[in-house]
Amino acid sequence: MLYLGYIFIIRGDNIDYRYNLNYDIIGKRIREARKAKKWTQSELAENLGLSVNTIARLETNNATMSLKTAIKLANILEIDINYLVSDFNSDSEKPLDMLINSLLNEFSAKDKELLIPILTAIREYKKSV
Fold first, then answer.
1. Does the 21-128 domain belong in CATH 1.10.260.40?
2. Which of 29, 33, 44, 91 could pair with 77 as two cysteines, CB 3.0-4.6 Å apart?
3. What Cα–Cα distance (Å) separates residue 58 from each residue in 23, 53, 85, 97?
4. What does DSSP assign to residue 5?
5. Which residue ranges make up each domain of the chain?
């Protein structure tokens, strides 16, 4: 049997994949990240080297993408690839935590020190409300 990067369990004649991609969630995250950068679909398409139609289809769960495209997309949109393809419930805090961690990884230790008073002020404010 050839291993292609999927973890799978064989049950009789069927193969149950341990991990699946939820393109509805992926599409929503692509759209949210694109809008956060204030880009049009056309601008994202140009940066990716894809057609506007392909971007629209990805955002609306009408197309799939290769791993290479997913990685390029995550890099261009400056989001964590795990956040992009994870199948956490969108109501969960886990994707938000992943996005915040992804952003924090871009900062130096000195830059992170600048965030401490800001986060502390937010925490103190929340306690007083």
1. yes
2. 33
3. 8, 9, 13, 24
4. S
5. 21-128
